[in-house]
Please model this.
Amino acid sequence: MNTTPAFETVVERHGTTVLRVCRAVLGAGADADDAWSETFLAALQAWPGLDPEANLQAWLVTIAHRKAIDVTRARARRPVPAGQAGDPGWPPGTTAERTPGITPPHGIPGEGEPELWAAVGQLPERQRLAIAYHYLGGLAHTETARLIGGTPAAVRRAAADGLRTLRRAYGADTTWEGRTP
Model:
């Protein structure tokens, strides 16, 4: 007997987590939304052959990771229009959301806490990915290590270093109860 839930149920249950991971990796905006959509399109195609015992959340976060890499590569190939003489470096129509390495002024994923998400966006890539996949995606450090490379101990260290940086940015007296990460 097949105990795999209906695909719609999986989207409802894990869609928010996958979107948070996409936004933490890519920043808020169309790229993260596209990666989210492509994640579930790829998952739908693979759905009939999925092992009923598979960890669905880990499987979806793994697909989202690969789609985020695809988007990052596409960003690198995307031409950036040249601005006019005297522009302060921002071509017309270019926003911080579409510019790699620049955190959007309104934060990254989730409702509220824009300062927190801006701080997450400023972390070094390994720390940001370790936090996104472990704390937002719910993956174990071993699964996160398979995604981003390295050992589980190195991923654990990167996540701890990232959390320490975030705590310093918020001050030592900040409580993290009810917040992500």
The helical segments are 7-26, 30-46, 56-77, 114-122, 125-136, 141-148, 152-170. Confidence is low (pLDDT under 50) at residues 84-110.
